[in-house]
Here is the input.
Amino acid sequence: MTVALVLVSHSALLAQGAVELAGQMAPDVPLLPAAGTLDGGLGTSLDIVTGAVERALVEADGVVVLADLGSAVLTVESALEIEDAWSGRVVLADAPFVEGAVAAAVAAQQGGALDAVQAAAQEAGGTFAASAPAAPAPPVAAEPGEATADGVVTEHVTVRNPLGLHARPAAQLARAIADLGVPVSVGGVDGSSVLQLLALGATGGKELEVSARGAGAREAVRAVVGLIDGGFGEA
Amino acid sequence: MTLDAAWARRWAAQAAATVAAAKDDLTELDRQIGDGDHGHNLDRGFRAVVAKLDATPAAADETVGAVLKLVATTLMSTVGGAAGPLYGTAFLRAAKVTDREELDAPAVVALLEAAVEGITARGHATTGEKTMVDAWQPAAEAAAGADGATTLAVLEAAAAAADAGATATIPLVATKGRASYLGERSAGHEDPGARSTALLLAAAVAAAEEP
Here is the structure.
């Protein structure tokens, strides 16, 4: 199942900007703005929202909709009430507009199903609310790249990008880790979550611990270390 | 006097005229406790409704519900602010229970009750929060209480109750919508959505009294 996003805002500029930002991290996901009134003012319009969702359904099997302020949410809910044919294919995410769009776009890029993409958006609010990384890092291995008794492989790597793990490299890293199929922890957080990676605030020169556990852990850690050490084409 | 699709079309036209005349007053009410666009947003919406109805010739067997659904989707598409989906949902739910060529008194009660249900479901508001629900809810209750009277009397009872309900929002402190940002300072001002609701229901009466 492929999932597209429709971003509903009062402002055409705001929706366009969110599309641009999320698109940088999810180049293959259809992202459609649906913003402003029919005469180009601030507000939301059923016609504009319905049109964007219909176009998104041509390009994808499912659509996750994000909305910015109260009446944008009401307009999307109205559209969902009217369009019976969308049932099961179009859902509204109860999520912050920008963070939710980014998280949903990356989840859709990773091939997530409709409910997974919606959940990614909805979890986005909590990610930035927490000031500290949630998951504790696995225990440090005795030697770099060596597995400990409980099968944890850990290496350390320095962020080479001058601007640190900002949006584009974070998204690239999260996608690569999701593709590995092995859970990899970076700096103590889930490496497949772009928002958790961004919340690390890993600036250039910072050392990060990369670890994984079990089958394929060694190869996964090496691959991730290689990516970070490679500087994502910016170092 | 027959409450048929032609009445529903006259209602929309009357509402457009009333809103156009009151748009500055509504916007002034909204400027005091909201974001100051209610009158102009509704005016834009009802102008579009009239244009849409003019462009949609009435079928011989047109139902009241068909007209109300057109009103609903047009308001949702053109008002811009929260009043669009709120009034739109009211007319949409009303349309679902009026898919017939003529309304009797119980059907008018059903129309108003469906509208209230739609607004409260969409806006998650209840009475006493200084919103349009404070006009819609007493209107539906007054209509239900007048059941057994003529259809015109039922409509008139609803419009009178909506008017009283709007006035009664003046001392209330808003707890829903943009006005709730003002907290205690929202008291002393009439809610613009409750006032526009009273105007819409007065327009329904005027449309029924037209020959």
In short: The two ends of chain B are 7 Å apart (CA to CA). Chain B has one domain: 3-209. Strands of chain B lie at 3-4, 102-103. The mean pLDDT of chain B is 94.
